[in-house]
Amino acid sequence: MSLGTLFTLVLTVSAQDAGDEDQLVDGWNNQGNFQFLFNQSAFNKDWTGGGTSSIAGNLNANIEFNYTKDRVTWENDIILEYGLTKQDTDPFTRKTNDRIEINSVYGYEVNKDDDTAYYSFFINAMTQATKGYTFKKDSLGNTIRTERTNFFSPGYLQAGPGYLYKKGSFLSINLAPSTARIIMVDDKFTSGTDYVDRSYFGVASGEERRYELGASLNAFYKLTLLENITMDNKLLLYSNYLDQPGNVDINYLAHIKMKVNDWVSAKFIFQAIYDDNAVGAFQIREVSGLGLSYTL
């Protein structure tokens, strides 16, 4: 006798002001998207195909507060993501996602008769909520873990003036040629013996901060692929003038939303990150799910 079970649940709740989402309306235009994904798989001892029982959950929230009035545009969003997974053969629960990000871009029209070009100032902050670990096997084959990251270790804060090109709510490009960036860490990560001979996310041994000055680009484009299928594209680039400006940090996110009906939707997310200070190679993640949705 063999038995295998797989259960996946995705719950999405959306709230937004009435009106066409691609048409800017004077005043505040707020919206929120909340998603919960649960995945469970189980195999009994006689399951010949092999497999490991596991349980996983992911929470995601994206809240936007946008303001448009006369010659002013002000866009703000908060992104929260957290996920955990546990396998029967692993003594530790592991994170699958952990992200806290806050963005704010203020723009003032260059010309009152042109609502696409703005002088701008932006702020971006990123970190994670809980400890992150690296895992390896000891000489006896047991899994051991070592703390690698924590809340604001690392933490990123960058800000600067620039130029914003904006077309409705589906296209925006913000170029800031004078962007200040601070990388913050707990000095316990830079003072230990494991980090004496190298930097920790770019922060030197014994230090708590790294200061950078460079150029940044933040672009967003929303594309309608088919009826009820849209694709959000976000691209963030940063070059540090003070240290190897040719090593550009890249963060690209593609989010495809497929509306089946008023209650059911499907999503696919692809993200690629290159940060020379963190890994020096591309980090890739993919998320997909079919779920229930409710819109206010």
TrEMBL record:
Pfam families hit by this protein: DUF3078 (PF11276)
Q: Which species is this record about?
A: Nonlabens marinus S1-08
Which InterPro entries does the UniProt entry name for this protein?
A: DUF3078
This chain belongs to which protein, by name?
DUF3078 domain-containing protein
